Amino acid sequence: MAEGALSHIRVLDLSRVLAGPWCTQILGDLGADIIKVENPDGGDDTRKWGPPFMADEDGAPADAAYYLCANRNKRSIAVNMREEKGREILRELALQSDVVIENYRVGGLAKYGLDYASLSPSKPDLVYCSITGFGQTGPLADQPGYDFLIQAMGGLMSVTGEDTPMKVGIPAVDLFTGVYAANAVMAALIARDKGLGGQHIDMALFDVQAAMLANQASNYFVSGQVPGRKGNAHPNIVPYQDFPTADGRLAVAVGNDRQFAAFASVLGQPGWAADERYATNAARVMHRERLVAEITLVLSERKTGHWQDLLAEAGVPSGPIQTIDQVFDHPQAVSRGLRQDTHVTGAGAADLVSNPMRLSRTPVQTRLAPPRHGEHTCEVLQERLGFDQNLVNALARQGVVA
Question: Mean pLDDT, to the nearest integer, of 130-149?
């Protein structure tokens, strides 16, 4: 295997559920050595977030599919931080690490001596990332935050859906927070390597959701008008939505006036490109309802495949609305290897979605399948702390590790 870009980086992952594990999975895919710390009593909550569950070698339910999506390229250790010896183990592992990532409530790790203020004096170059719902400061800092709640409070549901507010069909805020956090960690590591020392990264789901509003927030700042829901239509571009056809629906993404002229020609309406109501995108936005109605009449006369072929030939972006099985069976997905198989210890084969980053010299790789609960406790304690098997066994009997 080629060496990963972050193969020299050690990460102690004290996070669970999704935003933190998504961040550490990205770092692990890039080669970092991720030690996932779980409590001995069941571990990461998402292991139980099912069905569906994988079946273990005896056919009994094992880990949930949800857990599998965010935990490859990690080693799992089960340590009880409520025990002093457990805290000692975690502090020593933290001081051996380049990065610590956690998503406990604000101040939650201070009593264990595992917060940034407790660790950084002994390791000034430590990069420490805290992920919370609302951040380390502000009136809501002590409140828990979950993806759905933040989609609601952060404005996303106000611009998603049609007649009623609607959440996105994936935990988008958690995922975006994980990506932002991974970028922040890598930036902090670069700063460290420039001699600037370590630092504390404060990531909040609420902040990330506000940043995700992107053009909708900018529309509000510029116009003073509060954006609303437009279903699948775009607030700033027309036509940029799905339309009914004779046998389904077709997504059309016309991004400029040249593409609109080609689109109009395919629909047998070349005059639209010269019509002052439709000639420019600004005009089309103003006359959205009329134009959308006219497009709907034309597209509904033929099948989706007919229009897709003609539009592709004309260079106009369009495509069907595919189900998830159709996505991974699509020739493009097969060609790009978007579905990969792994082997989970004690459970067998498991398919995962491939990391989308393509690096030519240091490619991302799946070195480890998502670990079973505490699968690597003994291995890590022996490798990192020099414990022998007898000591690990004694700690297990005392409830310190599992």
Answer: 97
Contact assessment for residue 353 and residue 29, using Cβ atoms and an 8 Å cutoff: no
Q: Which two structure tokens, joined as six digits, stand for 208?
A: 């990330």
Three-state secondary structure call for residue 244: strand
pLDDT in tens, 287-316: 999 999 999 999 999 999 999 999 999 999
pLDDT of residue 137: 98
Residue 363, burial from CB neighbour count under 10 angstroms (0-12, 13-18, 19+): middle
What's the rounded mean pLDDT across residues 206-213? 98
The reported pTM is 0.95
Across 108-220, the runs of DSSP E, i.e. the strands, are: 127-132, 199-204
Terminal Cα distance for the chain, rounded: 31
CA-CA distance, 344 to 63, in Å (whole number)? 10
Residue tagged 């599919």 (tokens): 65
Dist. CA 64–CA 133, nearest whole Å: 24
User: Which structural domains are found in the chain, ordered by start?
Assistant: 10-212+335-397 (3.40.50.10540), 240-325 (3.30.1540.10)
- List pLDDT tens digits, range 267-293: 999 999 999 999 999 999 999 999 999
* Beta strand pairing call for 61-64 and 53-55: antiparallel
Could you give the CA distance from residue 287 to residue 108 in angstroms, rounded to a whole number?
54
33, 44, 115, 174: the catalytic one is: 174
Q: At residue 256, what is the residue type? A: N
* CA–CA distance, 160 with 385 (Å, rounded to integer): 50
Instruction: Mark out the alpha helices in 251-287 (DSSP H runs).
Output: 257-266, 281-286
The one-letter amino acid at 55: A
Question: Confidence class of residue 2 from pLDDT cuts 50, 70 and 90?
Answer: confident
Look up 174 and say whether it is catalytic: yes
CA 38 to chain centre: 20
